[in-house]
Design a protein that fits this description.
It is built from two helices and no strands. The chain is mainly alpha-helical and about 55 residues long. The chain is elongated. The chain starts with a helix and ends with a helix. The chain has a domain of about 35 residues. Helix 1 packs across helix 2.
Length: about 55
């Protein structure tokens, strides 16, 4: 088993352990990550729009 596979297995095992031990905190983490990702995509879209407008 190479290092990459071992790290992937450990990350998955940790995620499953975290979900079992603290489901409310895991849900809060996923929700916060989703909200931040939405904000990031909105900012990126706005920046891309501004860039394209400045080219015209």
């Amino acid at each position: 088993m190479n290092l990459k596979r071992l790290l992937l297995f450990c990350a998955i095992a940790f995620a499953v352990f975290f979900l079992i031990q603290a489901p409310a905190q895991a849900a809060r983490l996923v929700k916060a990550t989703g909200e931040n990702a939405g904000e990031w995509f909105g900012t990126a879209a706005s920046a891309l729009s501004t860039f394209i407008k400045s080219l015209m």
